[in-house]
Write the structure tokens for this entry.
Amino acid sequence: MKKVNYHTHCARCRHAIGTEENYVEKALEYELDVLGFSDHLPFPGDIFGMRMPYAEIDEYITTVLYLKEKYKNKLEILCGFEGEYIKGYEYFYDSLLNEKKCDYLIMGQHFYEDSSGNMINVYNIHNSEQYIDYTNYSIQGMKSGYFSIFAHPDIIFVNNLAWDNNCNRACDLIIEAAAENNFIIEYNANGYRRGLHEFIDGKRYQYPHIQFWKRAADAKIPVIIGSDCHEPIQIYDDIVKKAYLEAGELGLNIVLDI
């Protein structure tokens, strides 16, 4: 089976370690076929934290493109970002993909705009009704045409809320939209690295959430395994292998190309 990882961070995001070339070296050691860089996308004005300053964006792209050429006979390297879909920034996504020659964008909705126009951090959701706002906004991003993958779509379930009909509806709406648009969603291995936590509904991982992924399996939508690595050794470690194993046992429609 072809070995790929499209969800790769580096030290520029200020919460990972290792240079871009450190990740390439480890990818060669793991005998990967494709390594996609997708560090957290900085927006003009640095409106979000936990990522590289906007001033570094060109340096990051230049570095990845240099490595892409340097290692072209050993490894396919792709240049991308993981970032939020935010209405009004269409010009920015277009510039990244066309002018700056990025290969792809991953949609990772760590923030979303609610129905009242407020920007909400997904880690600060207080009731399950907010899951529907997250879902509706994310679907707009899926339909925008700028993104190739929806990273950890089940990240909202990091919040300790009882499972209810809003949870079911959020899952179903995302999966229906992915099916309608043939959109790739990501089974994120990094949730395993965070370990098991006590929730109202019992001990489980923050994500992947079994309730979401059972529905995704039934729908047969395309699913990609993402390491979401924050240090080189995690590119294709035992946690990634665990994700492939468990996704396979669920019967997910795993794809390797974007």
Summary: The longest strand covers residues 76-83. The radius of gyration is 17 Å. The CA atoms of residues 96 and 205 lie 34 Å apart.
